[in-house]
Specification:
Elements: E1 6-9, E2 31-34, E3 39-41, E4 45-50, E5 53-56, E6 61-67, H1 69-75, E7 78-79, E8 84-87, E9 101-106, E10 112-114, E11 119-127
Antiparallel strand pairs: 1-5, 2-11, 3-10, 4-9, 6-8, 6-11, 7-9
Protein backbone atom coordinates (compact mmCIF):
# COMPACT_ATOMS: atom_id res chain seq x y z
CA UNK A 1 0.00 0.00 0.00
CA UNK A 2 1.36 3.41 -0.98
CA UNK A 3 1.93 5.84 1.89
CA UNK A 4 -0.47 8.77 1.77
CA UNK A 5 0.71 11.31 4.34
CA UNK A 6 2.90 11.30 7.39
CA UNK A 7 6.17 12.22 9.01
CA UNK A 8 9.62 10.63 8.99
CA UNK A 9 12.87 11.37 10.82
CA UNK A 10 15.54 12.75 8.48
CA UNK A 11 18.66 10.61 8.11
CA UNK A 12 21.04 12.94 9.99
CA UNK A 13 18.78 12.76 13.07
CA UNK A 14 18.06 9.03 12.88
CA UNK A 15 19.66 8.11 16.21
CA UNK A 16 18.89 11.30 18.14
CA UNK A 17 15.60 10.37 19.83
CA UNK A 18 13.33 12.40 17.56
CA UNK A 19 9.58 11.92 18.08
CA UNK A 20 7.22 11.66 15.14
CA UNK A 21 4.59 14.44 15.42
CA UNK A 22 1.23 13.43 16.80
CA UNK A 23 -2.11 14.95 17.68
CA UNK A 24 -2.82 15.07 21.40
CA UNK A 25 -6.61 14.73 21.24
CA UNK A 26 -9.08 13.15 18.82
CA UNK A 27 -10.33 16.61 17.78
CA UNK A 28 -6.96 18.31 17.41
CA UNK A 29 -6.35 19.53 13.87
CA UNK A 30 -2.60 19.98 14.28
CA UNK A 31 0.30 17.61 14.73
CA UNK A 32 2.72 18.90 17.37
CA UNK A 33 6.24 19.57 16.10
CA UNK A 34 9.08 19.36 18.63
CA UNK A 35 12.52 20.96 18.77
CA UNK A 36 15.23 18.45 17.85
CA UNK A 37 17.87 20.10 20.04
CA UNK A 38 18.28 22.83 22.62
CA UNK A 39 18.18 26.25 20.98
CA UNK A 40 18.53 29.73 22.48
CA UNK A 41 16.56 32.46 20.74
CA UNK A 42 18.29 35.75 21.43
CA UNK A 43 16.35 39.01 21.91
CA UNK A 44 15.27 40.66 18.65
CA UNK A 45 16.65 37.75 16.67
CA UNK A 46 15.30 35.26 14.16
CA UNK A 47 16.47 31.72 14.85
CA UNK A 48 16.07 28.44 12.99
CA UNK A 49 14.67 25.74 15.24
CA UNK A 50 15.31 22.27 13.82
CA UNK A 51 12.73 19.50 14.13
CA UNK A 52 14.67 16.55 12.71
CA UNK A 53 11.65 15.47 10.67
CA UNK A 54 10.26 15.67 7.14
CA UNK A 55 6.71 15.30 5.85
CA UNK A 56 5.15 13.54 2.87
CA UNK A 57 1.67 14.10 1.46
CA UNK A 58 -0.37 13.94 -1.77
CA UNK A 59 0.49 16.43 -4.53
CA UNK A 60 -2.64 18.53 -3.89
CA UNK A 61 -1.88 19.11 -0.21
CA UNK A 62 0.44 21.27 1.86
CA UNK A 63 1.35 21.37 5.53
CA UNK A 64 0.36 24.60 7.25
CA UNK A 65 2.75 25.43 10.11
CA UNK A 66 1.58 27.60 12.98
CA UNK A 67 3.31 28.44 16.24
CA UNK A 68 1.83 26.78 19.32
CA UNK A 69 -0.20 29.25 21.32
CA UNK A 70 1.62 28.24 24.51
CA UNK A 71 4.95 29.31 22.99
CA UNK A 72 3.49 32.64 21.94
CA UNK A 73 1.63 33.41 25.16
CA UNK A 74 4.07 31.97 27.70
CA UNK A 75 7.37 32.87 26.03
CA UNK A 76 6.37 35.77 23.77
CA UNK A 77 7.77 34.18 20.60
CA UNK A 78 6.33 34.48 17.10
CA UNK A 79 6.62 32.45 13.92
CA UNK A 80 8.83 34.40 11.52
CA UNK A 81 6.81 33.60 8.39
CA UNK A 82 3.57 32.62 10.00
CA UNK A 83 1.77 30.79 8.93
CA UNK A 84 4.39 28.81 7.05
CA UNK A 85 3.54 26.55 4.12
CA UNK A 86 5.36 23.30 3.34
CA UNK A 87 4.67 22.13 -0.23
CA UNK A 88 4.41 18.45 -1.06
CA UNK A 89 7.50 18.61 -3.29
CA UNK A 90 9.65 19.84 -0.38
CA UNK A 91 9.86 16.20 0.79
CA UNK A 92 13.33 14.70 0.16
CA UNK A 93 14.59 17.81 -1.70
CA UNK A 94 18.29 17.77 -2.59
CA UNK A 95 19.32 20.62 -0.25
CA UNK A 96 18.12 19.35 3.12
CA UNK A 97 16.12 16.14 2.61
CA UNK A 98 12.93 18.08 3.37
CA UNK A 99 13.95 18.96 6.94
CA UNK A 100 11.18 20.98 8.61
CA UNK A 101 12.94 24.01 10.07
CA UNK A 102 10.84 26.49 12.01
CA UNK A 103 11.85 30.17 11.93
CA UNK A 104 11.05 31.74 15.30
CA UNK A 105 11.49 35.41 16.20
CA UNK A 106 12.00 36.74 19.71
CA UNK A 107 10.64 40.30 19.91
CA UNK A 108 11.43 40.44 23.63
CA UNK A 109 14.43 41.75 25.52
CA UNK A 110 15.55 38.46 27.09
CA UNK A 111 16.91 35.24 25.57
CA UNK A 112 14.47 32.30 25.44
CA UNK A 113 15.62 28.70 25.74
CA UNK A 114 13.81 26.09 23.68
CA UNK A 115 14.70 22.63 24.96
CA UNK A 116 14.91 19.46 22.90
CA UNK A 117 11.43 17.93 22.90
CA UNK A 118 9.60 21.21 23.53
CA UNK A 119 6.54 21.43 21.32
CA UNK A 120 7.15 24.55 19.23
CA UNK A 121 4.66 24.50 16.38
CA UNK A 122 1.84 22.51 14.88
CA UNK A 123 1.35 21.22 11.37
CA UNK A 124 -2.07 20.96 9.75
CA UNK A 125 -2.59 19.10 6.46
CA UNK A 126 -4.56 21.21 3.97
CA UNK A 127 -5.88 20.74 0.41
CA UNK A 128 -5.44 23.41 -2.24
CA UNK A 129 -6.91 24.12 -5.66
CA UNK A 130 -5.44 25.56 -8.85
CA UNK A 131 -6.93 27.78 -11.53
CA UNK A 132 -8.41 26.40 -14.75
CA UNK A 133 -5.56 27.91 -16.78
CA UNK A 134 -2.70 26.91 -14.45
CA UNK A 135 0.41 25.96 -16.43
CA UNK A 136 2.98 25.35 -13.68
CA UNK A 137 5.48 22.72 -14.79
CA UNK A 138 8.56 23.63 -12.73
CA UNK A 139 10.35 21.17 -10.49
CA UNK A 140 11.72 21.97 -7.03
CA UNK A 141 15.50 21.97 -7.08
CA UNK A 142 16.27 22.72 -3.44
CA UNK A 143 15.08 23.48 0.05
CA UNK A 144 13.99 26.67 1.78
CA UNK A 145 13.35 29.50 -0.69
CA UNK A 146 14.21 27.40 -3.74
CA UNK A 147 11.00 28.08 -5.69
CA UNK A 148 11.88 31.80 -5.87
CA UNK A 149 15.23 31.21 -7.62
Amino acid sequence: MKKKRGFEVISSYAKKGIHIPERKTSRSSGYDLEAAKDTVIQPHDLTRVYTGIKVYMPEDEYLLISIRSSLAFKKGLILANGPAIIDSDYYNNEDNEGHLIIGIYNPGDNPVLIKKGDRIAQGIFMKYKTTDDDTATGKRVGGIGSTGK
